[in-house]
Amino acid sequence: MQVTPERMNLLTEIPATSATTTASIASHLAISAVERDTGLSKDVLRVWERRYGFPVPERDTNGERLYPLSQVERLRAIKRLMDSGHRPGKLLSLSESELDTLSSRQNRPRRGDESGDLQRQVIERVRGHDMSGLRQYLSIWLMKQGLQDFVVETVAPLNRAITEAWMRGELEVFEERAYAEQLQVVLRSAMLPSVNSTSEPRFLLATLPNEVSSLGLLMMQALLAPEGVQYTSLGTQVPIPEIAAAAKAFDADIVALAFSASFSSKQAVASLESIRSVIPESTKIWVGGELIRRLRRDIPGVTPTGSLADMLAALRQWRVEHPAA
Amino acid sequence: MQVTPERMNLLTEIPATSATTTASIASHLAISAVERDTGLSKDVLRVWERRYGFPVPERDTNGERLYPLSQVERLRAIKRLMDSGHRPGKLLSLSESELDTLSSRQNRPRRGDESGDLQRQVIERVRGHDMSGLRQYLSIWLMKQGLQDFVVETVAPLNRAITEAWMRGELEVFEERAYAEQLQVVLRSAMLPSVNSTSEPRFLLATLPNEVSSLGLLMMQALLAPEGVQYTSLGTQVPIPEIAAAAKAFDADIVALAFSASFSSKQAVASLESIRSVIPESTKIWVGGELIRRLRRDIPGVTPTGSLADMLAALRQWRVEHPAA
DNA sequence: ACATGATATTGTCTAGGACATGAATATCTC
DNA sequence: GAGATATTCATGTCCTAGACAATATCATGT
């Protein structure tokens, strides 16, 4: 992830006439802004500085930290590598170039090339800011494949490709956001017909607090919709006790939770054990999303679904075990 | 907001066998969990304790704070009152009962009673967890009124009514979430037909980082869609520089930002000034959402739209000033 | 090769002090 | 008395530096 000047420019927080809290001087960010933009807590930023000697922000007249954009950019790269399993101690002692190598190795080349063309087509439209063209293109593939195959075979790898393109500096963050938004429109419109399904099992969908991404949840929903199952989504960032109460109120058979890669695995394990202990054994808990691959130990009573295909398999399995009453 | 035992029960974080970070012992929350659930930062929680003597959490064997649920509940009430303009110094010195009075006074009675019936109908369905019934009911009103009137005259007051019902303890948080999710489905399906609009002006929609609610953004979108304007949404939590870059890339005439009541007004002002200074004067900035009423001073070059109706008026105004080329 | 124990790593918590911004209040002038 | 300006108060965020628990890694013994 080489930091080109243009790229930095786009990330420049603006000279705020009087604001200290959020923004700061043109080319530097205050600690709260860095927390926002990197997802690393203030405590972590400070303790890394103490322990590893990075980042080393400048200071304003008041002794407060001011992070140069170059360091913020590097922190972002580090965070991403951590999200895919690396440990901070290693990463923080690496040189700039070693980091770059690691980042690019991350972008493993796609195996099949059939999906390559689609990905190029999509990325091209995103880069050209042709949102309606993008939507049409996605819709066509959706119709061709059907919702489930579209989600499993096209959308999942596509999301990875988009993230990788962003890491290579080919896409801006806002382009990624705009892509996600259009994808959402496409998926939601395809899900509308099955909004009134009534067959078993009954799903409750949500993400935990601190989860930023909503796409994983939506993909789960899109996968379940054509199965005709009943699902109720609570949306993102639902406190644990609320999930428990909702599971009871909606009489859910399965509580499905989505976790993106950036979710703290520590917190995830704690939360899952927490939820598991409040809702009855008869209610299953399924967990999906990028995080799963990083979860070492199993959590008793919680079913990890490492991929969306796994999730469908688990659903079929459930139906075998629970023949209609 | 009387804290009934049942209500507390629902809010109970679960005895986690080994988790300290997120959850804690049955009836108590660790500081990070309180931060999550109340939206008050750890710093604020600690400094309030020091200065005002509330909250006064217990301590675990390790000297770490453990907040009883009753205090968390009270903190939530305080936060809500702050969101509607009260100052912490006053609120924190109030007794339990005084807080209750203030909370209930908050719920000003609806003026017209015509909307009262609809609200009762909706709340009844939400409480009965009849999500498809709710969706149907909302859809009927949507068809009756048309999207724009539905949003302005029905959804906006309805959202307030739901929040108030929650404050009175008539609705659980998860019920509010489920409601929001269904509303989203209804609104999005109504917006689909106008997804390919091409007429002027060109909108860019987003919320800033730290914004939790996505409903305000969606309502803005729903209002704009029938006008045939072109809009691109970047979704929630978009960093300022990204918004700026996107405004340029999409050649936006107007950048519209949504702020919920719980957004820090300090941060909002700083961010808006920040954005204003990076994008060209010719690109307008419109701001909507509950927060607006709490903003004291004007921000030069930023148009506040205190209500959704205001926003439509502003749009008409813009069109007068910018006759099609 | 695999289980067990020792060590290192890492994130989060604690305390109390400091300061800048914005709100509220007092003072001055007309 | 009204309005402008200065002063005091209120409040959130930041600071340092130490501590500890949970996990990951490594080493040892079987």
Short description:
Chain A contains 14 helices and eight strands.
Note down, in words, how this protein is organized:
Two copies of one chain form a homodimer. With 325 residues, chain A is an alpha/beta fold. Chain A has three domains: 5-106, Multidrug-efflux Transporter Regulator, Chain: A, Domain 2, CATH 1.10.1660.10; 114-191, Methyltransferase, Methionine Synthase (B12-binding Domains), Chain A, domain 1, CATH 1.10.1240.10; 197-321, 3-Layer(aba) Sandwich (Rossmann fold). Chain A contains 14 helices and eight strands. The first copy, chain A, has helices at residues 5-11, 31-38, 42-52, 69-83, 88-92, 96-106, 114-127, 131-145, 147-167, 173-191, 215-224, 240-249, 265-278, 308-321, and strands at 28-30, 58-59, 65-68, 199-206, 229-233, 254-258, 284-288, 302-305. In chain A, the strands form two sheets. Chain A has a five-stranded parallel beta sheet, sandwiched between helices. Chain A has a three-stranded antiparallel beta sheet with strand order 1-3-2. The longest helix of chain A is centred in the middle third of the chain and has 21 residues, at 147-167. Chain A starts with a helix and ends with a helix. Mean pLDDT of chain A is 86; it is low at 1-24. Chains A and B meet through helix 8, helix 10, helix 12 and helix 13 of A and helix 8, helix 10, helix 12 and helix 13 of B. Chain B binds a DNA duplex (30 and 30 nucleotides) through helix 3.
